[in-house]
Amino acid sequence: MKKINLTVVGAGSTYTLGIMRSLVTEKQNFPLKRVVFYDIDAARQELNAKATEIMFKELYPEIEEFIYTTDRKIAFENSDFFFMQIRTGGLKMRERDEQIPLSHQCVGQETCGAGGMAYGLRSIGDMIDLVREIRSYKKDAWILNYTNPAAIVADALNREFPNDNRILNICDMPAAIMVSYAKLLGCEIWDFVPEYFGLNHYGWFTKIKNKQGEDLTQRIKDIILKEGIKAVDSIIANDPSWQATFKNMETMLRDNPEFLPNTYLQYYLYPEKMVSKEDINNTRARQVINGREKQVFEMCKRIIEKNSIAGEQLHDDIHGRYMIRVAASLAYNKGDIYLVIVPNKGIISNIQDDAMVEVPCMLTSDGPKAFAIGKIPTFQKAMIEIQLGYEKLVVDAWYEGSKQKLINALTLNRTVVNVPKAKVIVEEILNENKDYLPQFFK
Ligand SMILES: NC(=O)c1ccc[n+]([C@@H]2O[C@H](COP(=O)([O-])OP(=O)(O)OC[C@H]3O[C@@H](n4cnc5c(N)ncnc54)[C@H](O)[C@@H]3O)[C@@H](O)[C@H]2O)c1
Ligand SMILES: O=P(O)(O)OC[C@H]1O[C@H](O[C@H]2[C@H](O)[C@@H](O)[C@@H](O)O[C@@H]2CO)[C@H](O)[C@@H](O)[C@@H]1O
Ligand SMILES: [Mn+2]
């Protein structure tokens, strides 16, 4: 097996340490030669880097070189794989994305509704810029993107790099849900062959089989309706907000038992309930700042201080392992099946071709190959079409600097709908994001 050179872009992320620990778990599947960290925030990255260096010395001495840098040339010129996970504007801007819609009694969320629109508008420019520069050094490297909102980022990257099938947008949510299904059945997520369709954070599992071909769907539904379902992956197991989200998955299934829903549908199906449980002064961003972000960087500091990971609860996680397994299937032409986000091009036959859809794909060194899904039912088709209209209008608006298209986008979005609300929210979001979006202020 040829050993891989990997670059992590946005290496100051709260997820970096978990991904690095997951690389240890997956070292047989995805053996590494060199790891490079790149971030624009040197101080933030350095904490993750110094802790990672210590962990690699203890658990992954086979890695020949580990460096961290803010220099793009050093970071980009020699890698086979790029894991992208930036957050333009940071968690501080995430908080504003959540607060602005909430102040108008609309869902305030990182990737859904008006908050997702604001975050999408900020992410597009940085992501296009980064991918363009990576491509100037490495034409054939695999670029695996986690940067959110993945639906909007995927659409923009597909417009900008239409013939580049080595850019894959990925979400860990379906995998995290499957980890919980696996727990219910007493098996492993890697035993599952999922059938799923939708847009990112907006989809449904239609079937879950095991690798022996046994259909497990009804058993999973029955257990959820009888016993409930819990978040069990290491990052989210002890998080009350994620447990509440998994509880809502049960409600969604009870209200419509046709398919197994993605957790994120809660924001579109129960927007009033989601708004009513929020505290505008303690939205999810604030919880992450006081929770995951604090814990991760405190752990880094302890590891650096002790010069060892001994005694630390440093776990692998599905977020890391999913990305790494996707990468391994591409690198080694394994033909494994994972859910990724790809141009529709007839996969869902009654949805437009240029939709970026999240579907099962076989992953080989030729890139992702999706399986035909055919026609989807009227309810899901209509849900997808309005959301797709919203996503397309947001990306159009970014290119054109069109405020009207943003208002139209939010008018379509199930979390806003009313034109007067759409207008005032767009106005406030643009004002808050002036520095990131000069095209709207010409
Ligand atoms: N697709 C998924 O399912 C999934 C799952 C989890 C997280 N995410 C996404 O991963 C990203 C990281 O999340 P987080 O909560 O750890 O955020 P974070 O703010 O902790 O980390 C993001 C890092 O990106 C850096 N950054 C910002 N702009 C950059 C640029 N232009 N170039 C290089 N680095 C840059 C920041 O300095 C920061 O260190 C977010 O986009 C988040 O939404 C996606
Ligand atoms: O509110 P946050 O920052 O805790 O989470 C936002 C992200 O949520 C999903 O990712 C989960 C993932 O599903 C789970 O496996 C584990 O890794 O935790 C992640 C978040 O904590 C979602 O898929 C992402 O797109 C969101 O950014
Ligand atoms: Mn996601």
From TrEMBL:
The record marks E110 as: Increases basicity of active site Tyr. Mn(2+) binds at C171, H201. GO terms for biological process: carbohydrate metabolic process. Keywords: Cobalt, Glycosidase, Hydrolase, Iron, Manganese, Metal-binding, NAD, Nickel. GO terms for molecular function: hydrolase activity, hydrolyzing O-glycosyl compounds; metal ion binding; oxidoreductase activity, acting on the CH-OH group of donors, NAD or NADP as acceptor. Binds 1 NAD(+) per subunit. The active site is at D172 (proton donor), Y264 (proton acceptor). It comes from the Bacteria. Substrate binds at R94, N148, R284. Pfam families: Glyco_hydro_4, Glyco_hydro_4C. Residues 196-416 form the Glycosyl hydrolase family 4 C-terminal domain. Its cofactor is NAD(+). The keyword ATP-binding does not apply. Belongs to the glycosyl hydrolase 4 family. This is Maltose-6'-phosphate glucosidase. It comes from Gilliamella intestini.
